[in-house]
Amino acid sequence: MKVELLELKENRVRFLLKGVSAAFANGIRRAALAEVPNLAIDEIALYDNTSVLFDEQLALRLGLVPITAEDPSVFSLPEECQCGGAGCPGCRLDFMVTVEGPGMVYSRDIKFTDPSVRPVVDTIPLVVLGEGEKVVIEGYATLGVARSHAKWNAGTLCGYKNLPKIEIGPECNGCGKCIAECARNILVLEAERIKVTDPLNCSLCKLCVRACETGAVKVEPVLDCFVLSIEGDGSVKARDMVWMATSEIRKRAEYLGNWLAEFA
Amino acid sequence: MAYKCTRCKKTVEVDYEYSGIRCPYCGHRILMKERPTTVKRMKAV
After folding, report:
1. Could you tell me the CA-to-CA distances from A210 to A26, A141, A174, A217 in Å, in that order?
2. What is the reported pLDDT for B15?
3. How many domains does chain B have?
4. Which residue in A48, A50, A63 is closest to B44 by CB distance?
5. For chain A, which domains are there?
6. Model confidence over A77-126: pLDDT tens digits?
7. Interchain proximity A45–B44, CB inside 8 Å
8. CA dist A262 to A86, A250, A254, A258, Å?
């Protein structure tokens, strides 16, 4: 297996996996979507809510706010915590929201007791408060995985595709019909010949193949080569997300191996 | 159960069997259920 990094940003990573099966690439995608531990508000205690919004609706909105920590590794999942899930600073992050109207309650109004923990985006609107209306909430956030609830979803846009292989044969007459058909604009005409500028951007739609009357354009997927794109909501860095997802796969594979070894 | 009259804003006790839903002070028939003073705990889901 070979890995080639194509793009690395804070929230997005794109890389090439060579010599693997589709199941392997899909495993990384699924693990990044559902198995990466992430912070989210788990339980709240409402002291006052005189806004127009129902308590339950407000609770749901708070739960869906993406939360980030400077070092998420210092926190543990409640079921794996040394307190046994009873609640301790290692697995629970307390917060408070106290806002009085008139005005909008934003995600920045969620004040955590731990200064290293904060909402990813400050300007997520939660509820509009009228004159004299008030919201007083306290609660705690925990680590969790998206398998149990979507609010713990760290990977928001994860996908993969086969690496496209585009070949322009010698029968190409440079008519340019494939250039007009290509929705991604990756084909250009250079010296009466079609040239592929960015094959990684090809979506394998094969419109160019259908447009070519001479049959010079050939687009095929490379079956053991995948372009993986992992994008998160900002709560976990994309680089760490891939690392955590692959670690989870390895952990499970080791568990399965040990379990099967008992029968050998 | 204590309610609040939406017209005179007084807290009224409702006797369902005798008077039905009606404010004993002003006779208004729209009453509001007040939010309990207890803390409400719920899962953020």
Report:
1. 29, 53, 15, 9
2. 77
3. 1
4. A63
5. 2-34+156-229 (3.30.1360.10), 38-152 (2.170.120.12)
6. 999 999 988 889 899 999 999 999 899 999 999 999 999 999 999 999 99
7. no
8. 33, 19, 13, 7
